[in-house]
Structures
1.
Amino acid sequence: MPQESCAFACRFGRIDPRRVEVPRGTLVSTLMMSPLEHAGKTVTIREVAEEAGVSVGTVSRVLNAPATVRPATLEKVRAVIDRMGFQPDPRAQNMRRRTTMTVGFIINDITNPMHSNVFKAAEAELRPRGFTLHLVNTGGEPQREAAAIDMLQRGRVDGLMMTINSEQDAECRARLATLRVPGVLLDREVPVHIDSVMTDHATGMRQAVDYLIGLGHRRIALITAGTDISPGRERKRGFVEAFANRGIPCPEDLIRARHLSAAYGQRETSTLLRLADPPTAIIAGGNQILVGVLHAIQQQGIEIGRDLSLVTCDRTDLATTYPGPLTLIDRDVEAIGRTAADLLLERMAEKSVDPPRRVVFPTTLILGHSCGPPRPRAA
Amino acid sequence: MPQESCAFACRFGRIDPRRVEVPRGTLVSTLMMSPLEHAGKTVTIREVAEEAGVSVGTVSRVLNAPATVRPATLEKVRAVIDRMGFQPDPRAQNMRRRTTMTVGFIINDITNPMHSNVFKAAEAELRPRGFTLHLVNTGGEPQREAAAIDMLQRGRVDGLMMTINSEQDAECRARLATLRVPGVLLDREVPVHIDSVMTDHATGMRQAVDYLIGLGHRRIALITAGTDISPGRERKRGFVEAFANRGIPCPEDLIRARHLSAAYGQRETSTLLRLADPPTAIIAGGNQILVGVLHAIQQQGIEIGRDLSLVTCDRTDLATTYPGPLTLIDRDVEAIGRTAADLLLERMAEKSVDPPRRVVFPTTLILGHSCGPPRPRAA
DNA sequence: GGACTAATTTGAAACGATTTCATTTGCCTG
DNA sequence: CAGGCAAATGAAATCGTTTCAAATTAGTCC
């Protein structure tokens, strides 16, 4: 019966892909190797000490301060450690040292390529220093964010890197103000004593708008995050300033700054394109928004770069690949993650409390295929 | 000086976006709120006991077995706990309970949307049960994978979910064989006593190929992972079987199964398209490979769906958005993550060792805009 | 060889909870 | 009110490591 494919009628020409409900997975029991009795009788430092004929304190020093133990003893104890396969129990170390060698990473959505790239870079910086990362995905719900901060800082991590959903949320702000471990805020601005790594979204946006104005555009639309977080606020500011600098009236009616989501991007794009005097250029202020913008545009049969100019923020597979690379406001996401990790490492090392640091990263306008001179659209 | 944009010469018409090196971020010191002396004098159970006039054992029972304590005492102690803001130190709990309420997640690349979606789903399932996740990004390096397993299972986590880079790696296999904590393998097949969550890539591929054959294609190319991991092996098997079922000779020369990367996808696509008898359809067996395939195709000025049919694996923004949705082999990634978490939860709850379970998820062929009848390409 | 100093090592006390076990308390019945 | 039983409590052990004062050993000089 090689006719399986007949079940999938070809629906060439429709936009929406057919989404067939995926049934629950099948459970198959298998028996491979024997259970193997990995009894894992853990060896303790006490047993090592007894076996080596020394005290536990000496074994501890062999591991943590080898210089203070006589070479002969050192060698003897090390041999026993290797032979018995002893490894100190991290739980006991955490307990005694009041430390965990763990950093918490609280993020809105790890699925977002910007976030996962920041995480990756931070992890790459922290791992060689012996740190492991706890990742909490909050889905942008403030109470989960607050709960995550509470849970993690209570002896679970030595430091915290995070992005919160709204800078205005009282619960989160209160937690940040009384943080018990070093912390770094990512792209968020909260009037609290804490380090932060920011991006100069305003300048990036100003450059992009200026570029579009230079091409002849006046009806430029901006769709971006809400103004309760720095990226939304700064992008909007840069947008407005670009017009002001040129002495050209800003098309306030084309600014949409509410959410960072594909759905929002799609909805607002559809609305904008139906206006009596529609935009000749759209700036997608966020990589999720871009997805929505493109979906909306596809439904209208508009060709990007010819009928409509498009600028997006952040380098994603979609932005660099969409038939031809899009013009985009880029930033070095890896450097951001690395820097956040560095700031945290410093804070965790020296307990000095004073002054909070703030690192601002620049953006770069990268020209792609998605912009051209404005072209009046026929109705 | 609104002339900032003059620095960015419009390079309309070139494919490669201009990549300007982003300078290191600017460091700005700021002083906001006063240091706040969040001394955070931690309250211990001993202090609570003394304050409430009971023993530490009673306080512990108030928290862990409220039913065994007299209502009057319960209330009294709870009041003190609230007043002093006592929360048990997780480090001490871990120590005594021989547990951490933490699960390790070892992954190749968290930047891959499939991986991050699996993680997200698993986290959503585990968090309400009180578990937090350690995420280790290995970059696919076997020694890092082995090191991660070692580090995590040694008293740092209660369970482990993971994908390894190659099922053949001796180091990793050895670790898996002697795992001391419950574990779940994701999309990997290793002859070891461990649970796994798999995808039926072979059937998905067979359907896709059969669909293309039905459209008239014979020169179909497959670019996918190496055969040292289940996805590559299974996809290749399904590919071959589809032809066998139809009694049509399989174009072995068009099978490329080595790496899961954009670079590999781009390189192989370029090569394939330059063949004397090039493929009329390409199957991108992996979301990263898709990126490379599309980049290669763009360089040739080929129109997908007309000049060349394309099928991809896994639903990503790019796959659903690339001018029109692509035909794709879909799977329920969330269900996979959720199921992996469920398997692990069961194992962690009851210590029963026997038989390893294997859940196989089906795939679904979703028809988009990217396939059509084969069209001979003019040279 | 003895005295003194410096270098090692030891043993016990944390660290902060949970858990066990013996003891006390509270309650009920006869 | 005494006796018996169940429930509640407290004291102490435990988890595995680090740390620190005290004790031991080694080394040096006369």
2.
Amino acid sequence: MHFIADFLIKTPLFSNIGQTDLTNMLGCLDIKVKEYPKSHYIVSAGEPLSGIGILLSGEAAVIKENAAGSRIIMTILQPGGLFGEMPAFLPEAHWPASVYTQKSSSVLFLPPEKIVSGCQKLCPWHQTLTLNMLKIISEKALQLNKKVEYLSMKSMRGKLCAFFLEQYQKNANTTFTLPLKRNELADFLNVSRPSMSREMARMKEEGLIDFYLSSVRLLNIEKLRTMID
Amino acid sequence: MHFIADFLIKTPLFSNIGQTDLTNMLGCLDIKVKEYPKSHYIVSAGEPLSGIGILLSGEAAVIKENAAGSRIIMTILQPGGLFGEMPAFLPEAHWPASVYTQKSSSVLFLPPEKIVSGCQKLCPWHQTLTLNMLKIISEKALQLNKKVEYLSMKSMRGKLCAFFLEQYQKNANTTFTLPLKRNELADFLNVSRPSMSREMARMKEEGLIDFYLSSVRLLNIEKLRTMID
DNA sequence: CTCTTTTGGTAGCTATGGCTACCGATTATT
DNA sequence: AATAATCGGTAGCCATAGCTACCAAAAGAG
């Protein structure tokens, strides 16, 4: 239990909460921990919500898949990553996406009611926890907004430029390492991998970028900017 | 002021709050009301956040536009509609989208700090208001999730089927009226209007649907279901 | 009721990008 | 170090859907 508390205190959901408070909370919050092997579903889209999930160790992908089996990656969860926060506070909650282990993982589930509704003891940290939740969900919503921006771009070129320029901003360097494999990037931008490779090759030919495997260098930032759709 | 209180009490943000409490709140919350003529920007994407907005009267569209001027409609706001909730609780907040009046409108702005941080009087409704906020933002996030679902579909046919079937579910009737004009629907699905018309004509030809202007009837639900991408 | 504006349908051309298939390179496994 | 599995690049074909342009119908304004 101490191990879990030490871990949780570093996650955004439990920020601004004192060490002692947190230890008290854990008994009150009614948590459950489960283990999953690599390449297994933790939860499947559509199933009834079993609580907010926190990845304690391993790696998992939040994915959305349609009938035909075509899938898009929403996010990659690292330890500390949260999932299921969005529907947690709504009635009749169901998982809006599936979560699939990339590595063998352990997951902590925590029932949403406990976060929000004060327990009998009227612990003071409920307000803090609710506010943290509010921030986290707001951030998620903005992330989705960003995703919508990418998906709304009609041209492949536009998507790639937007993505590269964002990486450039993050790394503050024209040379950077892509955080996704080709397959994943194609999924993320919702395009087919070969088409993406083709377009990247074209951009290299035109002297806009250079790349070798996961390492990319932007050669003409200005021109790339004008190409965002 | 009484007029505003009577109006607000019916909105989701102020649900579960008593009439008397609400009247007290309004003084405490530091609200501002502004008027906007038809076809004007209320806020523009990228500008610093000026507070959470609530549409009191009129109609406005939340839109996202890229450099090239191509725009997509995120939602249509009716009186009572909220905007700016997503970034409101995050530091360095900026408007993630623009809001544009479709009819002349009046808008109430309300500073987010006031919702969350208890005032000196430690009013009991702060907790309720925060919880309402949590629900609203969760819903928004799920809506965006839905939007991502639509945009992730690669075929026009798939998008149309998904949209029609959702309308069918909402109206519980195979015949229904489209809530959007062709232009708007095309924007929403992120496709071009002529291409959409063409596809709808094809679907009519194939006996899947029938339509005249904004009235649509689904003729083969099962087959439509199999076509969602 | 007429005139204007908005909205919706259609046609034809063309670019974009999806898909399959294949091969070489890189990385993981033992 | 050898083998297997994953990953990335390329080619060619072709369906999908974007775009412009134009016309007809409906809705609004005077």
